[in-house]
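Supplementary Methods, section 5.1.

A reviewer requested that the exact input to the structure prediction be made available. We therefore reproduce it here, unchanged from the version used in the analyses.
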Amino acid sequence: MSQLTNELGTEETARIDPVHTVRTYYDLVDAGDVSGLVQLFAVDAEYHRPGYDRLSGRAELERFYREERVIADGRHRLSKIVSQGREVAVHGTFEGVLRDGTKTSVRFADFFSVNPTGTFSVRETFFYAPLV
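The structure derived from this sequence is encoded token-by-token as follows.
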């Protein structure tokens, strides 16, 4: 639970459930709801993903999801979620189709930092792929 200041300037307790927010993210991304998922990120959020420059802010995130992301369609299957405070780690598998029509199945790990307002301040993604 965190303290927030409402419109009247008084503090109120807000219930933030970082795990629920993370689950909502995967529901939205799998549904192709870019506008909705981008709203889960803070206006100055950062996203770190292998093979891409750091993405900063909602505009860059929206551009990434609409134009750059190589995934066309698919589903995330979450196998493990671990949280500590507002930090959430996710392990799972993504199965889907890339923009070039290639079918893919890849294991991934995501790490989310949720700020006191309940939006993501940082997301980091890692993929299980043979590189070395």
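The longest strand covers residues 71-84. These observations are discussed further in the main text.
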